[in-house]
Amino acid sequence: xxxxxxxxxxxxxxxxxxxxxxxxxxxxxxxxxxxxxxxxxxxxxxxxxxxxxxxxxxxxxxxxxxxxxxxxxxxxxxxxxxxxxxxxxxxxxxxxxxxxxxxxxxxxxxxxxxxxxxxxxxxxxxxxxxxxxxxxxxxxxxxxxxxxxxxxxxxxxxxxxxxxxxxxxxxxxxxxxxxxxxxxxxxxxxxxxxxxxxxxxxxxxxxxxxxxxxxxxxxxxxxxxxxxxxxxxxxxxxxxxxxxxxxxxxxxxxxxxxxxxxxxxxxxxxxxxxxxxxxxxxxxxxxxxxxxxxxxxxxxxxxxxxxxxxxxxxxxxxxxxxxxxxxxxxxxxxxxxxxxxxxxxxxxxxxxxxxxxxxxxxx
Length: 363
Hints:
single chain; 15 helices; 49% helix; globular
């Protein structure tokens, strides 16, 4: 039933403009805002409701992580770019998803499961380019939104969707990024916060927005990071950046360094929403990879009424750019800083399994 699979539809700025006026855009943005609200003021350890659906997703993520042990990175010592073993992992994941989804979501119709599988698979990166970015992260949110629209996830589940499910997904992605040295999908993920992610900062700032003592400048305090990073996504993200880049945030992540000068987490949280709307939901190089189907529909788009020649577009690696343009999502390859950090003092690459990551200077 290949026709049940959702597909990428946004090809041009005109398409994106139409999407931004659609019901699906409003539903998606509101879902992200609702998740943000559900996380506000709560650490990861918050005692939230864990429904059967929540437990099923967590179990599913555990099974995905087990696949990484079945497909270890291959010898690739002369390259700091993506490890080709990621393609074997991805193929295995795709082949197992139909059975895994039937097992974990037995009450959902087959055609709906096929749609959900596509979003879920897309949320782990691109098999061809061996890269990952904020568009893949957004596909995971779309997977959760599908569950919500099918009434498998209720609003009472939203705290767990952020604090348990999304947090576990990010932890899994850090394993996958570390094992397979996924390249950033565009320099600094297009928008400049972090090589790969955006939402840990958006949700994480909301978590911290009511904290009595911690302030944005606290990200520069190693003791704060060590004490609180397990409970707050924003701090965990900073700690992870520090683990692979020895240069200060001023050099490795200047936007995060600038944001640390904001007076309150509440202001940071508000700014993250504005930035996400503009730099993720508002960028064609990211949104051209988002899928649409029956659960998350989109009407006819401008590019679908004319040929590629009429719109003066050129095809590149499965997606489109204007004549003479080179999208942030597929420009010059960016080596993995994680891969670089795994060189030992003798210059040999170490496996991520059983070995600590050694920071190296970056930029």
